[in-house]
């Protein structure tokens, strides 16, 4: 489908103007909800049949011959355009979920998958509780959610969720439904939607749902099985990428912040906590949070090394200030093709350009135009006109304190802080568990020869103009250039 989904957007806007949710609109008009959903999101092309198009137009209350009727028909059959990015296509399919359902991990992680999907696609989430891991054994609902808005998967108001991975999903759903017929403290059944989620295939789920709706106990009753979850993952690429990695289906050219964090943890000995990568940068963390709360926009994060800037963002995702809501939408993109594919999709993402990706301003603009937040990491530039966050040099004293808080001895923390010289990139190299073939730029010609005079200087204070002047004379270069090279 075309990257610019004008027909689907027009269809969705007209439906919402009628004050109808997708489910209610399809129920009243007798349309297939799944097909309409995919069409609105640009995953299904407009129908070619004039009869079907007319039925849709009448369902949207468009008057034959009116301007809106003609616009609707024109958008359904637009002039041919060059094909561009096709948007997100699932890495995790229904069959993958069905295979995963038989594992212990599925039982413990299914609530976390649902929690992230809700955070990624829900409209105005007011509260969300869906414990995972060991906490799945605690009494109560498997999930509770309250949303201010309504969409295909997360309804407006309160929804109560039960989940199961058992081989017989119907039997588990019956058990959970019967259990919740009893008193449910804090829950008003007539105002609450009942959900049952299974990663298994349940072919007759619609029959079960209709039978339970007729009881008129809950505001709504829904079942999400493997096919429903596959469709939901289409709307949440960041969650799809994260889950694909967990299922051994690691995508090419993209990664999630959880996976990058695991790499950072595995890189050093000892593994460093998030506070180390955020040391001396509390104000910058606040700036990042404020930017994320704003409208779609681009943000330049400048540091002495682009990798250090990405480390800052990934570490920030571990903090409660950003939390799982950030991880549910953030994607680190490594190639231009992957960027264009994700930028052209309907899901609202936080696209983070990998340091290895050279990205043009036009691609960033395309992402913003389509409703995404975009983060670009780079070295310090001279007076960038763009909105930016500049990561300061790390205070040696601050670094020493945070290392000591991580149970590193006072002597070792003092030594590492001093040896790192305010650079977290240097710190990572000094305590790396593994060798590498990439050497710092300053250690290679022609920079290495130019920096030999620094050995004569020994130590200096960058805040003292005289020290910086002496270094420029010794190296016959600008102090900022010398500092940038030495920090790598």
Could you name the key traits of this structure?
single chain; 488 residues; alpha/beta; 434 Repressor (Amino-terminal Domain); Restriction Endonuclease; Rossmann fold; 6-stranded mixed β-sheet; 5-stranded mixed β-sheet; 25 helices; 47% helix; globular
Q: What's a concise summary of this model?
A:
Helices cover 47% and strands 11% of the residues. The protein contains 25 helices and eleven strands. It has a six-stranded mixed β-sheet with strand order 6-8-9-10-7-11, sandwiched between helices.
Number of beta-strand segments: 11
Write down the overall mean pLDDT: 87
Number of helices, counting only DSSP H or I runs of 4 residues or more: 25
Please give the alpha-carbon distance between the first and last residues. 44 Å
Q: What's the helical proportion of residues?
A: 40-55%
Structural class from helices and strands?
A: alpha/beta
Low-confidence stretches: 80-86
CATH level-two architecture of the largest domain: 3-Layer(aba) Sandwich
Work out the strand percent. 5-15%
Strand order across the biggest sheet?
6-8-9-10-7-11
- Indicate the CATH class of the largest domain: Alpha Beta
The structural domain count equals 4
**Gyration radius, in Å:** 27 Å
Looking at CATH, which topology of the largest domain would you report?
Rossmann fold
Strand count, sense and closure of the main sheet?
6 strands, mixed
The coarse silhouette is globular
């Amino acid at each position: 489908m075309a990257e610019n989904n004008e027909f689907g957007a027009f269809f969705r806007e007209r439906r919402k103007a009628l004050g109808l949710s997708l489910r209610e609109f399809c129920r009243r008009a007798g349309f297939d909800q799944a097909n309409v959903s995919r069409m609105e999101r640009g995953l299904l092309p407009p129908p070619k049949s004039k009869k079907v198009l007319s039925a849709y137009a009448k369902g949207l209350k468009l008057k034959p011959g009116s301007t809106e009727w003609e616009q609707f028909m024109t958008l359904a059959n637009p002039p041919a355009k060059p094909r561009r990015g096709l948007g997100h296509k699932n890495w995790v399919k229904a069959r993958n979920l069905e295979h995963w359902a038989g594992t212990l991990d599925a039982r413990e992680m299914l609530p976390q998958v649902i929690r992230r999907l809700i955070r990624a696609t829900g409209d105005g989430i007011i509260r969300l509780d869906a414990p995972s891991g060991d906490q799945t054994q605690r009494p109560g609902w498997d999930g509770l959610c309250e949303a201010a808005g309504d969409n295909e998967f997360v309804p407006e108001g309160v929804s109560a969720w039960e989940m199961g991975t058992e081989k017989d999903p119907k039997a588990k759903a019956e058990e959970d439904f019967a259990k919740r017929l009893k008193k449910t403290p804090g829950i008003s059944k007539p105002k609450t939607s009942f959900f049952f989620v299974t990663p298994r295939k349940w072919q007759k789920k619609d029959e079960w749902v209709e039978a339970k709706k007729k009881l008129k106990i809950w505001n709504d009753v829904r079942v999400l099985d493997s096919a429903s979850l596959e469709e939901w993952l289409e709307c949440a690429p960041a969650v799809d990428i994260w889950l694909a990695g967990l299922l051994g289906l690691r995508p090419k050219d993209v990664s999630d912040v959880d996976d990058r964090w695991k790499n950072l943890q595995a890189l050093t000995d000892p593994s460093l906590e998030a506070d180390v990568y955020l040391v001396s940068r509390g104000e910058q963390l606040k700036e990042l949070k404020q930017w994320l709360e704003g409208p779609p926009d681009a943000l330049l994060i400048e540091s002495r090394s682009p990798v250090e800037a990405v480390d800052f963002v990934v570490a920030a995702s571990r903090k409660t200030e950003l939390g799982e809501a950030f991880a549910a939408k953030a994607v680190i993109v490594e190639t231009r093709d992957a960027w264009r594919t994700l930028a052209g999709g309907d899901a609202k993402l936080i696209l983070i350009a990998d340091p290895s990706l050279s990205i043009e301003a036009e691609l960033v603009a395309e992402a913003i135009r389509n409703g995404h937040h975009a983060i670009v990491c780079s070295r310090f530039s001279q007076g960038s006109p763009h909105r930016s966050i500049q990561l300061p040099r790390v205070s040696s004293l601050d670094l020493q304190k945070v290392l000591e808080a991580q149970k590193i001895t006072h002597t070792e923390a003092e030594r590492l802080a001093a040896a790192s010289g305010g650079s977290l990139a240097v710190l990572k190299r000094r305590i790396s568990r593994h060798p590498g073939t990439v050497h710092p730029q300053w250690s290679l010609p022609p920079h290495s020869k130019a920096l030999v005079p620094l050995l004569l200087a020994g130590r200096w204070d960058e805040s003292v103009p005289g020290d910086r002047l002496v270094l420029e004379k010794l190296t016959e270069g600008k102090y900022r250039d010398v500092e940038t090279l030495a920090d790598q």
